Amino acid sequence: MYKCCIFDLDGTVLDTIASLSHSVSLAMAHFGYGPVDEEHTKKFVGDGYKKLVERALIYSGDEALVHYEEALSVYEKIFEENCLYEIKPYDGIPELLRFLKEKEIKLGILTNKNRVRAVECVETCFEPGYFDLIVGDGDGISLKPDPAGALFMAESFHVKPSECLYFGDTNTDMKTGIHAGIDTVGVTWGFRDQKELETFHPSFIIDHPEKIKHIFA
């Protein structure tokens, strides 16, 4: 019986691609580069903002990463001002979360996003305290795909990994959940396609949040 659900944030709970693409494009413009479209941004995110900036610079032509250190600072400032840009929950997510809360399932967010920005995004789209725990970059825990964050959350909820479900939309998420010994749910409405998720053979692959409710019946 599952007692806890841990969710990735970007691409799983919240559609944040517009804010990420907008922010990284503004950061690249600072160095005279063109915008990074949403499709490329989807491929660049998932491993923290430093990897996003690195990949965006290489895509823009700075293969030697000459501007890398400065670009990190530029992006952080820009993202602080734009992290709420056009963000919204994915269809069916609010209903799934309400359903889980009615079942008294603990709810957590595990993200590679800066924790302050993550909380800001979550509390803009949901009421403060809606999730029982939010863990992100800056909490002193290794970033995904290291399973440390998922295991920390299970321990915090006083449940075994086998009593958790982990939801995510990228290869990073699949590695995180599976390496933590947690049944993992690949979601296809996010930033990556089903083919990428299938490579890792997660316990479930779903194309809408309602498709997982049956296991809690």
The first-level CATH class name of the largest domain: Alpha Beta
Shape estimate: globular
**Any low-confidence stretches, pLDDT <50, length ≥5?**
none
Largest sheet: 6 strands, parallel
- CATH fold label of the largest domain: Rossmann fold
- CATH superfamily assignment of the largest domain? HAD superfamily/HAD-like
**Can you tell me the number of structural domains?**
2
Helix content: 40-55%
Strand content: 15-25%
Give me the count of strands. 8
The count of helical stretches stands at 9
CATH architecture verdict of the largest domain: 3-Layer(aba) Sandwich
Q: On the 0-100 scale, what is the average pLDDT?
A: 97
- What is the structural class? alpha/beta
Could you give the order of the helices and strands?
Answer: EEHHHHEHEHEHEHEHE
Strand order of the largest sheet: 5-4-1-6-7-8
Distance between the termini: 10 Å
Rg on CA atoms, Å = 17 Å
InterPro entries: HAD-like_hydrolase_sf (IPR050155), HAD-like_sf (IPR036412), HAD-SF_hydro_IA (IPR006439), HAD_2 (IPR041492), HAD_sf (IPR023214), PGP-like_dom2 (IPR023198)
Pfam family, one: HAD_2
Keywords: Hydrolase
GO molecular function: hydrolase activity
Strand-helix topology:
Layout: E1 4-7, E2 14-15, H1 17-29, H2 38-44, H3 49-60, H4 68-82, E3 88-89, H5 93-102, E4 106-114, H6 115-125, E5 133-137, H7 148-156, E6 164-168, H8 171-179, E7 183-187, H9 194-198, E8 204-206
Parallel strand pairs: 1-4, 1-6, 4-5, 6-7, 7-8
Antiparallel strand pairs: 2-3
Helix pairs in contact: 1-4, 3-4
